[in-house]
Amino acid sequence: MVKAIQIGLGHWGFSWTKEVIPKVPSVEMVGYVDTNPEASERLQTELGIDPKFCFSSLEEAAKKTDAVLAICTLRTEAHYPVVKRCLELGYHVIVEKPFTSTIAQGKELVTLAKAQDRVLMVSQNYRHQPAPIAAAKLIAENQFGVMNMVSIDFRRHGPSQGYRYWDMPDPLLADMSIHHFDLMRYVLGEEPVRLSCRTWNPPGSPFQFHPSGAALIEFSKGTMVSYRASWMNTGAVTPWAGEWVMDAAQGQIHWTSRDHFRDRTGPDILTLQPLDQEPRPIPLDPVQFPDRKGTLNAIAKVIETGTVPVGFSSGADNLGSLALVQSSILSASRGGDWVEVAEVLG
After folding, report:
1. What UniProt keywords apply to this chain's record, in alphabetical order (predicted)?
2. CA dist., res. 55 & res. 46, Å (int)
3. Domains (range + CATH), the chain
4. How far, in Å, CA of 123 to CA of 312, rounded?
C-alpha cells in the first residue's frame, strides 16, 4: 500500500479525488492540499473527507502525514514549481499532462528526480487502454512487416460539446494533441525526427487561439504520420484517441480508443486487414486499471516493487512527447516550416 497526498483540488483534481483514486486499491490517501478553502470544503461536503486530512499548503501536509507519493493535479503552469518542491521534499510524483510548460523545466525535474532517487511519472492515461496496448504489441512483433504510413484523425465540435476553455493558448496542440503525440511514440516504438505543422481558427469560432491543425511527422525508422485534428469539426465525432490507420508492408492495423461521447460509451476496437484480404476484428484483452486509474496504479506498483514496466510514462520518457508538442507549435508559428525535433529537445 502506497500512502499518498493529492495537490490541486479544482475541477479536474476533484474528478481524480472522486472517480480515480478510490478505485486504485494500492493507494491510501492521507492528505489533500489546496490553497482554496472552498475546494477542501467541497471534498468534505460532497465526498465525506475528514477535515483532518485537508491542508492549505504542501509544507503543512509534509509535516503532518507520512505520504511517499504526491499526486499533482493542478493547472499546467503550476506543475513545474509544485513538482519541483515535491521532489525536494522526497516524494515520488505523478503529474497530469502537459508535464511542464517548457523542455528546460522538464529536463530540470527529470534530473532532480534522478538525484533524489524518486519516481517521476506523467499521467499519459491514453496508454492504459486495450487498443493502443494491443497495437503497440502488434507493431513490436512486426505483425505486417515494416511500417509505412500512419493516418490519424481527431474530430470534435467544442461549442456543441461543452468545451469551455476558449482563451487557452494552443488548445489543440498543447492540451489535446499531446495525447495523440504520446500515443504515436508509444504505439510505434519510435521517436519523432522532424515535422511540419499548420494550424488555423475557422470563421465563427469562439476560440481565441487555433483549435484546428494538420501535421506530417517523420519518425526515426522512416514511418510517416499524417495527423489531422480539430475542435471545430462538424463531421462524425471520433473517439478521444482518434481514428488510426496504420499501413505496413503486408497489411493494415485500424483502431480506435476511448469512445466516450455524451451518453455513448463504446469499447476500444482494433481490426487487422492483411494485404488483399478482408478486415477482421480482433478481440482485445481487458485492462484491469484503464485510463487514469492505470497511470496511478502503475506508479504505485513501481514504488512498491522497484520494477519499471514496458510503456511506463516516466518524466524522462515524456520529454519526447513534450518535444513533439513544442515542435508542432514552433512549426505552426513558422507557417508550416519543417522543424527538427532535436532543435527543440536540445
Report:
1. Oxidoreductase
2. 17
3. 2-118 (3.40.50.720), 127-285+323-345 (3.30.360.10)
4. 10
